[in-house]
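Bit of a strange request maybe. I'm writing a small parser for structure token strings and I need a real example to test against, not something I typed by hand. Could someone generate the tokens for this chain?
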Amino acid sequence: MRSASFEIGGEKKWRVLDDLTREAVAAKEELTKTLGIDPVVSRLLWNRGHRTPEDARSYFTLANEMLGDPFDLTDMKPAVDRIARALASHEKITIWGDYDVDGVTSVTTLLLYLKEKGADVSYFIPSRFGDGYGVSDSTVAQLAAEGTKLIVTVDTGITANREVENAKALGVDFVVTDHHECCESIPDAVAVVNPHRPDCSYPFKELAGVGVTFKLLCALEEKLSGSDRITAVNTIALSYADLVAIGTIADVMPIVGENRLIVKLGLDLIERRPRPALAALIEMVNQRGDQRDRQSTKKRLQITSSFIGFTVAPRINAVGRVRSASLAVDFLLSETPERAREYAEILCDANRERQDEENRIVRDAFAQIEAEHDFENDPVIVLSSDEWHHGVIGIVASRITDRYGLPSILVSFEGREEPYPSPDDVGKGSGRSVKGLNLFEALSSCEDILPKYGGHELAAGLSIRRGDFPAFRERINEYARARLTHDALIPTLDADCELSGEDLSLSLEEQIERMEPFGVGNPTPYFISRGLVVRQILPIGGGKHTKLLVGAGDRSFEAMFFRMPESTLDLFVGEKIDLFYSLGINEYAGRRSLQLIVKDKKRSADSTDRLSLERAALGAILEGSDPVGVEVPVPDRVDFASVYRLIRETVAMGEHYFAVRSMLSRLTPDPGKPFGFLRLGLILRIFEETGLITLSAAGEDLYSIDLCKTDGKVDLDHSTILARVKRLALN
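Reply from user aminoacidic:
Good idea to test on real output. This should exercise your parser:
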């Protein structure tokens, strides 16, 4: 067993955010009374900082969420003026976008708008495989040769200093719009619109790339139409808020302030008037999606941020990962249902292809980590391969970080033409980080050996030469060692509050739905419930998912474990468990019921403590000592018969290994009367003592058992263990 400074394993920490001070409790009671809402919803509002009835009321109505003046963004006026001039003089415009969902929706939004204004406009999205991330000199030169006079970047370009300068000699102007972190210097373009510019005073900094594009369109509409700002914003929102919402959700931007209003408008637009592409994709997912997708899309008229994030966005993203992002743009541009269905089919096929490739790389990466990574010294997992699909390694990096709780960077050197590796081979990398390590800043510390890099605090992309890879791995780990502590890396799950069975209701979830859209900054509410009794375990979706029926007192609830087969849960009927979950509604055959969507589970502390007490009591009884802290059960004839029948039936099937928890689950048809570890342990020792079975330990709470041949009926009353148990029970 390795000793590890940075390896994190075992259970996640659960933290409850609920403020139980007297003042907080009184304020939450006031919210409940004044607004007529569920007390649990008042606790959720308090946790999100909405602590007066007026503020809470405006939270539901979005009355305080205002869209700022787009011209307050630095360089917005020169950006608008240059694009307007290109429109007036019929110059050829090329939109240059990124290949993720944010980039694809940005390209589509600006392309549709400029075409509506009569522009001579086309777009370019780099290939993940041939071009890599960002702006390239060779493609700029090609576009210039084809007549492009103005390049407008969306969701990219903030680090293209050299490329923008070289374009000037070709007669090509740049308008850069981006939302990624800025380096010390920015491109010397006609305009650079980015809320993260140090000299930009725009108050809301958390716009997605498509959010910046949205602000550009609002400013253009105001100038080109001559309308006032409110009219211009309404015009753009009614036409493009759906695309802006998808890109914002997919890029995991905080759903607060302007983003919350934009996403709300976009989700409403998808519900009321979906463009042909989105209608076709949602319909196809309903018909053919997996269980989680079908669950998410039961409420066709209630499109949520979760549905966009888990169902729509991955399919748009997948085609750019394994084929071409241009197909995603063509999909969104579909004008007829027939054309939209053709492209939706392509997206769904690409998503399945992406999933297969992802699983292959995950297996390879996990094996490489376990064999090679220095957990004791290196807080960042840095891997490379010539066999990994570059379009998928970002998702795999996310899974690695989720599993190990460590930042991870994967580099693919795929596609080299030489028969042998060269130090000059350039690989493309994707990274994911954890709170406490700003990945963009970490990469900046290695910029002298990175041809390209960019991104955010928690996600970034890069290019690196093969010969520099070992130095990069050492340097970024050195940077991280100075900033990350072991305690900071222990994964923590935050719950809004603990709930009892009496707190849970369909009405509660219906009120929580009014708090949508959820996302970073306005997170999906999570709860903890403790001491729930497992009453049924049901595999569903061909065994890919598991549904539990759990009990709290005399009430029962469905608990869904998506993408977790029964075999991975290590649970048995009759056990008490604690669940960390969000709430959902299951709609089936016209019936609506509450569901717990489980994110994590633990065996209840009282069950664990009880098991420890009963294990110690069994040892004491067998050693002739008096047990402490438990009531000694006296097995009766029904108990003996039940256990013997279970052993006989199991051995008859050729199985001789018995896990205690598995036996207890099969001996407890009525969860209200658990059989108990001590009762079972005593019966097994009594059977062994009287010659009915042979019993040997095969692990903790695991036994190897065989039946013995006996002459006639065995009298269990001859057991000294049973006699001692009866004496103890009388005392």
